[in-house]
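Q: What structure does this chain adopt?
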Amino acid sequence: MAAVVDSAEPRPQLDYYLILSPADGRPFNPEGIVIEEFVRDRHCVTVGLHNAGWTPADGRWWSSASFSRGMRTDPELSGRVTPVGRGAAEAAYRRLGGGRLPAEAVLRTYFRDYEPFAIAPPLRLGPADAPDGFHEKRVYRVLFAKDPCADQLANLTAVWRTPADGELSDPAAWGLPTGRLRVGGDLFAWNLRRIGRNLAWCLDLTASLATDADDAVGPVLYELTSVLRQQGLIPVTTERFA
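A:
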């Protein structure tokens, strides 16, 4: 989690996925790649999604909002899509005959079929008062598709055992991975859990901000979402509750 403290970091990397063969579903034998980028407003709430894909059968880059929706709503399709880093996407693109994967600035030019998200004022699920010593409290929820396996949950518990205020985060608090982190004077606490009668997974993040500056919120949300992508979950949207 050390990367989140550098709020001056340039634009976050795109999200990369491999499309796996329905015959074997192995990441080292993909059928294509998908690239996505969420669009967020100044409060870090998701307002839209850009996407592009490439398969050797097409031989060109395409863009499909319906494909991105299917990655999150169609169990058969989501089972054939796995999140990866840029390195794995580069290797797959080269192996499939695409050559060198274009730079991210070029990949963004392939985004054509934009998916807008409905937005609403933040929901109020509890007291909005900031804890003592803090200027403001915010609550965010990041929704995810797919289910993590036991090994992936164990990995998250290990990754998020982050020292904060001289203590370790306590994964037993919810029975699932949790964590805490200080960035300057700001305090972030989060937990992963199921919602909606086991229909989805979510990451709930409480941000207690020391001042009216919120520069650390975006990088923390991005880093936590990236960690969950590394464990196989597909982000769906980010909402603000308070």
